[in-house]
Amino acid sequence: MNWDQLAKSIGQLVRLQPPAKRIRGSVVLSQSDEFWRIRDVKKRKTVEIININTPHIAKLGSDYIVENLIDQAINQFGEKCNIFKLKVQVILDLDSDLFKYEPL
């Protein structure tokens, strides 16, 4: 992955592949292909993203991201979007701002 290019993407939208799982209590809800915004890129080691619909902030280590693709289609926000292909699935707890990872 090109970390220098990724550092220039701070503020841009990103989608996760696979999409994040969502849970509420012990109930697993449907997956949602939500948008996240790249908040920070730290020294070629982590990317911090924030969900635009929830207060969740996820930190993805370089070992979690397989590839960073650019979706050339313009989304409903009028922006192009990055797509992070992941080795893990992000799990969001909708009753809190907690998240965890599940290996694929």
Low-confidence stretches: none
Strand order of the largest sheet: 6-5-4-1-8-7
Q: Which whole number gives the mean pLDDT?
A: 90
Number of domains: 1
Distance between the termini: 20 Å
Residues in helix, %: under 10%
Q: How would you sum up the major sheet?
A: 6 strands, mixed
- Helical stretch count? 1
Order of helices and strands: HEEEEEEEEEE
Shape call: globular
Strand content: over 45%
Number of strands: 10
Query: What structural class do the secondary elements suggest?
Result: mainly beta
Radius of gyration: 13 Å
Summarize the structure.
The protein is mostly beta strands and 104 residues long. It has one domain.
Description:
The protein has one helix at 3-7, and strands spanning 13-17, 20-24, 27-32, 35-42, 46-51, 57-61, 65-71, 81-86, 88-93, 99-103. The chain is mainly beta and 104 residues long. The chain has one domain (3-103). The strands form two sheets. Strands 6-5-4-1-8-7 form a six-stranded mixed sheet. A four-stranded mixed sheet has the order 3-2-9-10, with no helix packed on it. β9 (88-93) and β10 form a beta hairpin.
Characteristic key phrases:
four-stranded mixed sheet; mainly beta; single chain
Fold topology:
Layout: H1 3-7, E1 13-17, E2 20-24, E3 27-32, E4 35-42, E5 46-51, E6 57-61, E7 65-71, E8 81-86, E9 88-93, E10 99-103
Parallel strand pairs: 1-8, 2-9
Antiparallel strand pairs: 1-4, 2-3, 4-5, 5-6, 7-8, 9-10
